[in-house]
Sequence to fold (146 residues):
Amino acid sequence: MKKDISQLADLIFAYYPKIRKLFRNLVSIKDIPITVTQLTCMHILSQNRKLSMSELASDLCMSNQQLTKVVDVLTEYGMVERVCDPKNRRKFYAQLTPKGEELLSSLKNEVEYKLSAVLHKKSSDEIDKLYDSIAYFMSYFGYKEK
Fold:
């Protein structure tokens, strides 16, 4: 049975709200009302150490103006800092602070704990299959395993 692009789009539309809800349930920050976009921004920075605001906006698929608001909030929480380019004072980079790195680490631990509770009755083969399926899906969107 062959599927067409329309059916794939329908599946993605059905899938996205469910995975977003699942992710929100897996990640809870009690002291900071952080959004999924802000969390995604922090994760991108953790993978790249330091990015120009334009590079980060591109990675998040948003405008520089939208990103400025996201980074402003993260800066207020002490999770991200802006660093001026010494060669060009108009160019800024964003990078995680130690507090931001610590928060991401604790969130990753929380996700692992909650996933363990959800998947505790699954065999290692089933978990491998789930991992492989997600990694295969993500490969279409530029994800590369490390």
